[in-house]
């Protein structure tokens, strides 16, 4: 009898996993039906969420509570759904400039409110009770900054509990005695999966609860669910999953929440090629989290070997937005071969609703162990310093000709305000003087590349333009205005 039961369980396990695979495929393929359309940019403000939260307040499927306020008086809300005995607490935007999962939470809420996938939702909502706190740091979000209005990192306030936001987080965790917690963040886009050129688009961590990084049942459960999520995401971003550093931080909420008995799953949203607003990564969060909730509800994550967690590659930080390899640079009459690693840094515009790029050379020298979202092999190419010209009026039709002449700075009438231009040359005031050219970390990467006696490429504010191709067909962010 026992043998027959064991055989039946072995037979049913693959069927269960296959059914879950079908479900997650449908989640990914049908995502656009559930994407919250009002949240289509990263720089989300508290006021944008209030109409959405109000809709759920009047929806009988959901329970919405005000659970606290930020330092500047913005309401913190908890949105709950489900009738199960397993409590799951998910919170996002503890850091104000980390909003990717906030968008995904509202996608998940739309999914839970829909009429589709009834059997899977019944499985989730009958076994689990879900609690979402979508924006823990609304004051930081208002100005798109990591820290709160007190200037502290809420994720380092678990012991002292000086911030009202941290107090709220602790109070909710304790009142729920949550079985699982999902701590949702964004990480640098310059992280890669260790020893690969692939960005760590999603990184996971089962946080340690002591310096020894011991694995008890609480942490093991988080590890197993992470392995499950990793297997799902590999279908859509193969090789682009990392494992976040698990050094114990005694002040951090994630580490302490694990210490307090909640299986804590950290999700970090990193970079993805050509996904500036992180909408594909938002989608991966949606699929990843819903898949995790489904396997927790079914309980089959428990059969996953905890050792598989260690197979997920560590995060590394070896990525640049643009890597120029093997370029020839002449200094004091002698040629040198350099690699250049360029970061396109974002500068918030007034109101913190949008940004422009101000790029820098982040590193130079031998960068053979580093990678780029975009890499250009400049073997045989020589760096040529930019020159400046004066014009009475900017004429788009002459842009390519001027770039081909090595002109990257234009003295021209400037707009009254603003720090950037979409025109692919820097605009400068009448008193601007071009400094002596030199390649150094920290300087803005603007120069030309020459091969076989002619200029072939322009690098303007860290964006590489091929001068043999129409400019409108190429990726370009912006140039700068120097007043």
Chain-wise SSE layout:
Elements: H1 2-29, H2 46-57, E1 63-69, E2 75-82, E3 86-92, H3 100-113, H4 118-127, E4 128-133, H5 138-142, H6 164-176, E5 180-186, E6 192-193, E7 202-206, H7 217-233, E8 241-243, H8 253-259, E9 263-269, H9 279-298, E10 315-316, E11 319-331, E12 334-348, E13 355-365, E14 371-377, E15 382-384, E16 387-390, H10 399-404, E17 407-411, E18 420-421, E19 426-428, E20 447-451, E21 454-460, E22 463-466, E23 479-482
Parallel strand pairs: 3-4, 3-5, 5-9, 7-8, 11-14, 16-17, 17-19, 19-23
Antiparallel strand pairs: 1-2, 2-4, 6-10, 7-9, 11-12, 12-13, 15-20, 18-23, 20-21, 21-22
State the main characteristics:
about 475 residues; alpha/beta; Aminopeptidase; Urease, subunit C, domain 1; 2 domains; 8-stranded mixed beta sheet; 5-stranded mixed beta sheet; 10 helices; about 30% strand; elongated
